[in-house]
Design goal:
25 strands; FAD/NAD(P)-binding domain; alpha+beta; globular; seven-stranded mixed sheet; 499 residues
Amino acid sequence: MAAMVTTCDYLIIGGGAAGCILARRLADSTNAQVILIEAGKPDEGDPVACDLSRLAEQDESYDWGFEALPFPGSHGPIAYARARMLGGCANHNDCAFIEPPARDLESWAAAGATGWGAAAMAPYLERVRSSLGIEEAPPGNALSRAFIDSAIALGALETNFRRTVRAGTGWFPLNVKGHLRQSSSIALLHPLSRLPQNLQVWTETNARRLTIANGRATGAETSRGLIAARREVILAAGAIQSPHLMMLSGLGPAADLKRHGIEVMADLPGIGENLMDHVAASIAFELKTPAPPWRLTPCEATLLLSVEPDAPAPDVLYHFVLRLREKHIGRTLYGGIEHGVKISPNVARPKSRGRVALASPDQRIQPSIELGYFTDPEGYDRKILIAGLRHARRLVATPALARWLKREIAPGPAVDSDAALFAYARDTAETVYHPCGTCRMGAAGDPLSVVTPDLRVKGIAGLRVADASVFPAMVTVNICNAVMMVAEKAAHLIAADAA
């Protein structure tokens, strides 16, 4: 018996922050038949997925359970959470929602992403803004307020990050309405029972590989059979899984593919390269009394800071977290302290690069994730993170924060030299869960870019990528807003071609 084949015009693989926007926009702006597939479960009707205040209740069933490889000086593998549900990581994060600064987008254009500069992207950012509910974290938590006041005492300007992204301190804008997340699935697809007639959303449907014939992507083999796409296949599976699926399908560095016995459909050496992430390390403190209860998220307050003299833009972003949560596999860093906070600086625009590579030709085996933290030859990332940790200690010495704190528990006051601080940072380095860049966008003549500025994969017709993997450079802030911006522009490009 022949395998079941379902046919559509556009097949979108990955129902996360980008894929849900693409699906809705293409269904609304064209007459095309659109199928969106997501490997995870539906989010609708699941309060643990949809209620931001219940994030801590999400268990391993909401996550792919990836681990990033250890790197020199690190304790061991790093848990590298990637959401496995409709809505993706926007249903799996703290909903911090800051727009990418104009300077970051200008750096994209300068890197060969023509048409992606600040002025060109303003309409797409506005569309994201108008489609979602963006609120400010309620300024009622006294300890989060103390963090903001400590930053002000050291010269930071209090800033409303909903209106302006600059060096300063303030409350995180949140993509929520009340307790309800405003992920792109919740905002644009719910209720799933009332989707447009030309849009199907298939959850719990895993893409196994792309089908490619005569240099053209024609669909995908999935856990529910073959899906054929008459017009285009659009990958929106994220910075880890989009390159992984491409490599499983014969697209990528030819030598790596051949080593795994995969037929090479297109030698694209940039696939999986250029992995960027916001590397962080935390200074943790025990509290004298329990932290005041938070309404939605334990991460309410932030600080954008320039620690480099004459830096053209902030180079450190802080998360002030009202709880201690172990994030390292197989270790206890905080000694079971029940009431504590951590100040977590991250390198806003890191220069180090990692890599996503095949570990096996079996799609059930997770890819190899090499973070590449602190590998930049100039030592920039090391220098910035050490400076960020030192400034964190200055923050807690101000009266606003000092009155709350009992003692520093990690790394401890004795860890004070640059060498000791860096050894601690390397050993305890954390991801902020912002992987991007692994299918980098660039000019047609750039040998290591994977997609051109219209998001088409080089050398393969009928295939685009539209997610965080196309970022040419890191953005200074949390990346969810920028991912949605990419999806809005992708939908416009695809619909314009259809017309």
